[in-house]
Specification:
The chain is α/β, with parallel strands linked by helices. The protein has 16 helices and 15 strands. The protein folds into two domains: 83-87 and 363-465, Alpha-Beta Complex (Aspartate Aminotransferase, domain 1), CATH 3.90.1150; 97-358, Type I PLP-dependent aspartate aminotransferase-like (Major domain) (Aspartate Aminotransferase, domain 2, 3-Layer(aba) Sandwich), CATH 3.40.640. Helices cover 39% and strands 14% of the residues. A seven-stranded mixed beta sheet has the order 2-8-7-6-5-3-4, sandwiched between helices. A four-stranded antiparallel beta sheet has the order 11-12-15-14, with helices on one face. Strands 1-13 form a two-stranded parallel sheet. Strand 11 and strand 12 form a beta hairpin. The longest helix is centred in the C-terminal third of the chain and has 38 residues, at 348-385. It starts with a helix and ends with a helix.
């Protein structure tokens, strides 16, 4: 083919591609006892049907389509184009290359739900290791094979507390991420569960312990839910709150950043009955919001209420050691209307990512990463509060995320910083902060001292201009 012929072929626009031929469609219609596509959609009212061709551009060849998609992707602002200090539930962490290398193996990547243990020993063992590693991390005996994300894990943990106690009232910290609060409402209110909020100390940002004790005095509360670090980035005092909950005959559930457990004692060892978390910081990329992995860990007496499935180490009839799903009777596909949860699936592949991440790092390196997060956050905090007009929003201890009060609206500040190449943080909900100038800033191990100092310098210039 000469150059002119090649150019002629490239100029020809394809008419499009549909995987089903006319005979394919006819065969499907006949299988349904129908004669036409019009008959198939006869139940769709005429007034809601589109009576024109779709307003779409001409079809493109594969290379043209790829060029256009890449051009559109190039318009995105991501953690590759900007210096990222966003948090509030999703964090930029370094993921060792070994995680992708192992989890991309076909045995894991294409594995189905391991109902038949004789066919799924590798996957079952990997999920068993996930349960063991996460249980050790969070300080609890029982861990499920995961649920969808941190918010659904928290909602499921609340229903666990209701099921175990027979009560239908949950007390939730006000300093809970907005998205998690919305999921709690969606899950629990239709089930007749009453959600009450407990305020926070306007100085430290921690739960108001006296107000919590008053709410529990009636004895009709199934459980208390807190988040640590909370929406201010403040670490809650789980050890101090646990006795208050026990005195009020309420269970204690803690939603924790799992990396925090490498810096201070895990909530399960401080008196929490249930510990939940979003596992994204443990080897999962940001991925524009998912998929992530929700983790629920609980004390042994609550295991029967744990949603999802559990993998156990077992012996077959010949005494050979192996792995199997040992508890799935709580699931909807088995227990039907008596199920403790309607989550019948999990995030097995992402759970395996978590297991690989934890196993590869080991205890010492995991703690080093946690300490690096805390140290980097402390450095940026000191640099920011030294700027004119910037002060702490709450004074409580923070980990890798902290909140400050700016002299200007936080949305204005973030917009200006974004133009300078920085994702500056997440504005704190005005109802929580008491004004529109609160900013939540996250710093992880991915930031060098130069990155942190550059943020502070740009922030100073930005505030001067504002």
């Amino acid at each position: 083919m000469n150059q002119r012929q090649a150019e002629s072929v490239m100029e020809q626009k394809p008419i499009g591609y549909n995987v089903h031929t006319g005979s394919d469609r006819q065969a499907m219609l006949e299988a349904m006892g129908l004669f036409s596509v019009e008959q198939l959609f006869a139940d769709v009212p005429q007034q809601v049907r589109l009576r024109r061709e779709l307003d779409l551009p001409p079809a493109l060849s594969e290379w043209e389509l790829m060029r256009d998609v890449l051009a559109m992707a190039g318009l995105n602002q991501t953690v590759l184009t900007h210096s990222n200090f966003l948090g509030n539930g999703a964090y930029e962490h370094y993921i060792p290359a070994v995680v992708d290398a192992i989890v991309s193996r076909g045995e894991f990547l294409t594995a189905y739900t391991p109902y038949q243990p004789e066919m799924s020993q590798g996957l079952l063992q990997a999920l068993f290791e996930f349960q063991v590693l996460v249980g050790k991390l969070l300080g609890q005996e029982s861990v499920n094979c995961s649920v969808y994300d941190g918010a659904t894990a928290l909602a499921e943990s609340c229903w666990m507390m209701c099921s175990a106690s027979g009560k239908r009232r949950i007390v939730v910290t006000q300093a809970l991420w907005t998205e998690y609060r919305e999921v709690l409402t969606t899950y629990l209110e239709p089930r007749g569960v009453r959600l009450d909020s407990v305020g926070h100390d306007v100085g430290t940002g921690q739960i108001d312990a006296a107000a919590l004790a008053a709410l529990l005095a009636s004895g009709d509360v199934a459980g208390v839910v807190l988040q640590s670090p909370n929406a201010f980035g403040v670490v809650e005092d789980v050890a101090a709150l646990s006795p208050i909950c026990k005195q009020g005959h309420a269970l204690l559930g803690v939603c924790v950043n799992p990396l925090l457990c490498g810096w201070i004692e895990a909530p399960g060892r401080l008196g929490a009955d249930i510990v939940v978390c979003e596992g994204q910081p443990l080897g999962l990329p940001l991925s524009a919001g998912g998929p992530y992995v929700g983790i629920i860990a609980c004390s042994k007496p609550l295991e029967r209420y744990l949603p999802g499935r559990l993998v156990g180490r077992v012996h077959d009839l010949n005494g050979k050691l192996g792995y199997a799903l040992v508890k799935e009777d709580r699931e909807q596909h088995v227990a039907r209307d008596k199920a403790t949860s309607h989550i019948c699936s999990n995030q097995a592949l992402n759970a395996i990512r978590v297991a690989i991440y934890l196993a590869c790092l080991g205890d010492a390196n995991f703690m080093r990463i946690a300490e690096a997060n805390a140290a980097n956050a402390a450095l940026l905090y000191e640099l920011l509060i030294a700027l004119p007009g910037v002060r702490p929003l709450r004074s409580g201890t923070f980990f890798n995320e902290f909140s400050v009060e700016l002299p200007v609206p936080s949305t204005v500040f973030c917009a200006r910083m974004r133009k300078l190449g920085f994702f500056a943080g997440v504005p704190v909900e005005a109802a929580l902060a008491g004004h529109d100038r609160g900013l939540l800033v996250a710093v992880t191990e991915t930031k060098s001292r130069a990155d942190i100092e550059a943020y502070a310098a740009r922030a100073q210039a930005c505030l001067r201009e504002c």
